[in-house]
Amino acid sequence: MGNGCSCCSSTKVPENEPPEFEHDPLWWVKLLDDVGRDPAGVTRDFPRTHVYVATSTRNNYSDAKQKVQKHVDKVLVVGGAQGEGAHFVERNARMRESVELLMELCGEETSSMEAAWKNQQMDAVDGSALLMSVLLDSGMMSRSQDERSCEEKCAHANGPSDAKEGDTAGAVLPASGPVEYFVHSKALRLMQYMVQSVAFYSVQYITQALRFPWCKHMQDISWVVDVYPEEGKYDGTEDGERIVLQHKHVLRHYVSEKDRRNQPRFEVEWTCAFHINLKQLRLGHSSTTAGSKLGDDEEVQHIDAHLTAARVEQPRGKMCWMSSTWRSRLSELSKRLKQRFNVEIEKTEEL
User: Fold this and answer.
1) Is 190 in contact with 276 (CB distance < 8 Å)?
2) What is the 3-state secondary structure (H, E, C) of the chain?
3) Do 310 and 35 contact (CB within 8 A), yes or no?
4) Tens of pLDDT along 234-256?
5) How many angstroms separate the CA atoms of 95 and 73, rounded?
6) What digits encode the pLDDT tens for the residues 90-100?
7) Using only C-alpha atoms, what is the Rg of the chain?
8) β-bridge mates for residue 59, sequence order
9) Which of 102, 143, 154, 295 shows the greatest Cβ crowding within 10 Å of its Cβ?
């Protein structure tokens, strides 16, 4: 494991950073500020994100990677309505298990959530609508209009009417405006750390750190979130109070077939981990849960970021085919990875 934590630390910026890395060192501040800004964003991103959760008693890790690949292959090969239906059932079941485990990890009762799932179609195509329905029906989330009392609604319906001829009697049109949300579940608050807009800032950091004149297109080919209890005891906290929520990315330099003689095709593994105190998780109206902070008395106690591995594609028997430009660029990349992250690049026949 490289020293990405020291170079990407949330508390210190290295003094010997070379000029090519002149970019905003406070990416983690922007990242935390984005948490919860879009409460409904969870329903958009969570269904398509692989989230693996471990509690003190169980997890959903079993054959995770094999299941993902098998699932992708099945959809590609089978196709049609039958293959797609199986895909959506599997995705929704995975989503349900992940939410349930997050609630268990937070010490929350799951019966309401389980009851809400029973009312859903498990082969639903729209995962966002499905998750939103579960969150609202289970009480994990509520909308501002749902918080209004029945008496308030009746007052509008039965109050003095200025209806003119042609108006429909008794019709009440609600005032238009942005929908506001209330977060009632710690598990849902954790899910707000898993949206794509939050992950964007750490990914942007590493792609900028590996930017060269010949490398400007890094693809995020894999994104997984791991959540598990943090081991050890810490001042002011008890066992089970602190958890780790870690984003794992595999980023690959896109190189077209015709350019591979001159441009190294490489990939890196990048992780960004939040160390979170469950007792400090903020619930309530979206205005009070928007944004997060770093500190001993805040939700996030610490942030670690690491570049853990790097690989370059070098097909066997084709070393003579690689140009001197390719070799020079690989040397440039290797030097930066070593100096910046203390990571050696591994050569592989194929990515």
Assistant:
1) yes
2) CCCHHHHCCCCCCCCCCCHHHCCCCCHHHHHHHHCCCCCCHHHHHHHHCEEEEECCCCECCCCHHHHHHHHHHHHHHHCHHHHHHHHHHHHHHHHHHHHHHHHHHCCCCCHHHHHHHHCCCCCCCCHHHHHHHHHHHHCCEEEHHHHCCHHHHHHHHHCCCCCCCCCCCCCCCCCCCCCCEEECCHHHHHHHHHCHHHHHHHHHHHHHHCCECCECCEEEEEEEEEEEECCCCCCCCCCCCEEEEEEEEEEEECCCHHHCCCCCCEEEEEEEEEEEEHHHCCCEEHHHHCCCCECCCCCEEEEEEEEEEEEEECCCCCHHHCCHHHHHHHHHHHHHHHHHHCCCCEEECCC
3) no
4) 454 555 689 999 999 999 999 99
5) 20
6) 999 999 999 99
7) 24
8) 54
9) 102
When pLDDT is cut at 50, 70 and 90, the band that residue 319 belongs to is: low
Phi, psi of 266 (to 5 degrees): -135, 165
CB 194 within 8 A of CB 98: no
Question: How far is C-alpha 193 from the chain's CA centre?
Answer: 6
CA separation for the pair 9, 32 (Å, rounded): 14
Tokens of 88: 């959506």
Taking a C-beta distance cutoff of 8 angstroms, is the pair 66, 233 a contact?
no
For tokens 């329905």, the residue is: 133
User: Cα–Cα–Cα angle for 252, 254, 259, nearest 5°?
Assistant: 135
pTM higher than the cut 0.70:
yes
Measuring CA to CA, how many Å separate 343 from each of 176, 202, 278? 54, 18, 33
pLDDT for 165 equals 42
| Sheet hosting strand 181-183, strand order edge to edge | 141-143, 181-183, 284-285
Contact predicate 187/106, CB 8 Å: yes
Cβ neighbour number for residue 75 with a 10 Å cutoff:
16
What per-residue confidence (pLDDT) applies to 270? 97
